[in-house]
Amino acid sequence: MMDPMSYGRAELLADQAFVRRLARSLSADEGAAEDLLQDAWVAALQRGPANPSGLRSWLVRVLRNLAASRLRSRTRREVRERACARPERQPDTTELVARVELHHLVRIPTRASRPTTTEGPG
Fold first, then answer.
1. Quick count: other Cβ atoms within 10 Å of Cβ 97?
2. Which residue in 23, 28, 43, 55 has the fewest CB atoms around it within 10 Å?
3. What tens-digit pLDDT sequence spans the chain (122 residues)?
4. Looking at the domain assignment, is residue 11 inside a domain?
């Protein structure tokens, strides 16, 4: 690997429009594309490609790897959140009280519905 600073801003800026378009094509929205783009530039400045003439293809690979990593992370997070999420709507207190009252009305037989026993004389 070459020193990341062996190529300068001019080489990075020459590919800026291309890299921006690629980041947008790999992202769901503009904000995510900007995040990908910034992370790719950071990677280029920190470690860069082994061969400066391969900067463009290296940036493509980095952007694709970053996008795939974010997709995996988002998918895992969504699965975890669904697994521990509560139901969207909880009944309010008034509804719960009404349910309990209805339950008691249904369970408690009225006097008219009770079987009557008639004892004869005797």
1. 11
2. 28
3. 444 455 667 777 788 899 999 999 999 899 999 999 999 989 988 888 888 788 889 999 999 999 999 999 999 999 999 888 877 777 788 988 998 888 888 876 656 555 666 665 65
4. yes
Residue 95 forms part of a structural domain: no
What whole-number distance in Å separates Cα of residue 16 and Cα of residue 20? 6
Instruction: Tell whether 34 is covered by a domain.
Output: yes
Q: Which domain holds residue 50?
A: 4-86
Retrieve residue 28's tokens: 């769901």
Yes or no: say if 67 and 93 are a contact pair by the CB < 8 Å rule. no
**How much is the pTM?**
0.62
